[in-house]
UniProtKB/TrEMBL annotation:
GO molecular function: ATP binding; ATP hydrolysis activity
Keyword ATP-binding set for record: yes
Keyword vocabulary terms for this entry: ATP-binding, Nodulation, Nucleotide-binding, Transport
InterPro entries named among the record's database cross-references: AAA+_ATPase (IPR003593), ABC_transporter-like_ATP-bd (IPR003439), ABC_transporter-like_CS (IPR017871), ABC_transporter_ATP-binding (IPR050763), P-loop_NTPase (IPR027417)
Residue span(s) of domain ABC transporter: 22-251
Function: Involved in beta-(1-->2)glucan export. Transmembrane domains (TMD) form a pore in the inner membrane and the ATP-binding domain (NBD) is responsible for energy generation.
Name of the protein: ABC transporter ATP-binding protein
Family as reported in the entry's similarity comment: Belongs to the ABC transporter superfamily.
Length: 264
């Protein structure tokens, strides 16, 4: 049963509307006897980029799915843009969006048709104009009327990003947004995300295995392991705490069970 009454459950008070883009308190997700997410709490300030790191099975994707309202938590509280999830999801879903290279759009539809469908779902005003603007910004114009199934991996990623930006979201949730991309295309995607955040004051939560990407983009890093938060700070402070020069070295320390301060 989802816990809703903070006073009765011992949860901290809900964050005042607008002071946090995401407020997660004591979040738990059980699959039979497996704790996919185990007592996770964090608050993310508006306009920031936060990296959510961890190995396979750490609980990153499940956490993002619960924030989106796609998976119901076993217990705990989630507040997104001042609205309780999933109870008030109808009030907030139009202000957020999601992108992952592992979620394909219909292959037989053209890029324009796919973006039109998603734009209508979000009730985007002047949708043809919005699609043309995204096509220009993301270099999609040459294949707007090509079937999605006939695109390269890099082209599909740019289309997926266009889908995620179709409604100009205040909150953007990204799951491995540059996976399997060549360095040039990945760098192009990262630069566009930075530009979008600065232009719109958007909040971005980024789950990634690319440590250089996280170092470059993120103000803050939350490291998960076995469903729990292992560390939570700025990239520089986390690297200093582990006496490491890169987040990749920190990631390996956490994955292999090494203690902080870089103990070999």
């Amino acid at each position: 049963m989802i816990v809703e009454d903070a006073a009765l459950s011992g949860l901290p008070a809900a964050d005042p509307a607008g002071s946090a883009a995401i407020d997660v308190a004591h979040l738990v997700k059980l699959y039979k006897t497996t704790r996919a997410v185990d007592d996770v709490s964090f608050r993310i300030r508006p306009g920031s980029i936060t990296g959510l790191l961890g190995g396979n099975g750490a609980g990153k994707t499940t956490t993002i799915a619960m924030i989106m309202g796609l998976v119901l938590p076993t217990s705990g509280r989630i507040q997104v843009l001042g609205c309780s999830m999933p109870d008030q999801s109808a009030e907030v879903l139009g202000r957020m969006n999601f992108e992952s290279p592992y979620v394909d759009m219909p292959m037989r539809l053209t890029v324009r048709q796919n973006l039109t469908i998603f734009g209508r779902l979000y009730a985007v005003e002047n949708l043809p104009g919005r699609i043309e603007k995204l096509a220009a910004d993301l270099d999609l114009s040459d294949f707007l009327d090509r079937a999605n199934g006939k695109l390269s991996a890099g082209q599909k990623t740019r289309v997926a990003l266009a889908k995620a930006l179709i409604n100009q979201p205040e909150l953007l949730l990204l799951d491995e947004p540059t996976a399997s991309l060549d360095p040039d295309t990945a760098d192009w995607i990262r630069r566009h995300l930075e530009t979008y955040r600065k232009a719109h004051g958007a909040t971005i939560l980024l789950a990634s295995h690319n440590m250089l990407e996280v170092e470059r983009l993120c103000d803050r890093v939350i490291i998960m392991k076995r469903g729990r938060i292992e560390d939570d700070d700025s990239p520089d402070k986390i690297m200093a705490r582990y006496n490491r020069t890169t987040l990749e070295e920190v990631f390996l320390d956490v994955a292999r069970g090494r203690v902080q301060e870089g103990t070999p």
